[in-house]
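Sorry to interrupt, but I need a hand with the structure work. It will help me judge whether the discrete encoding reads sensibly. Write everything out right here, beneath this request:
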Amino acid sequence: MKSSLNILYVATAFLVLSACNPVRVFLEKEQLPNQVAYKTFAVENQYPGKNVYGSPDLDKTFQDQLIAGMEKRGFVLDINDPDLVLRYNTILSQNQKEINTMAHNPWGWGMYNPYMWRYPYPYDYRNGGYKIEKYNLGEVVIDFVDTQREEAILRISAVGEVTKPKQLDRNIQSSTDRILTEFSKKIAALN
């Protein structure tokens, strides 16, 4: 009985954590060769001098995570003669979205308001129940370039909403892990 409850708790925690992940991964290009013999890799910025989200610290962290993730998957770092080059680029753009404030209104439409407030919190009748919220959208794009063919065999991107500066680091970590997991799946399917 205890072991089945423990399994239930672990499964629930896994589902909650995976549902809360703010990063989505997209496979944009796939031109894998029939034979895969990639053993070594190198990491380079697509636009030298342009740091990850404009931060040299995030750029170094991102490169370190890419290197550690590839080495964990059995690849060897070789900056002189790599089989694969991981060429990355990041984009941070400002966006806005419309939020329905009526969804949080405890009184609903037509409900009597005992305090006779004209604009009860959080619903705002002046804006029709909607407000505009600004946020940043962070995107990480990695091209996996075959140095023999001199072309990208995979392009995988990760996109996540960033509302706080501390969230940039977490999104970078999550993006790196999820992109490399998708890369591993594609490479493993060939062998």
Summary: The longest strand covers residues 84-100. The helical segments are 2-19, 56-72, 165-190. The domain at 23-190 is CATH 3.30.160.150 (Double Stranded RNA Binding Domain).
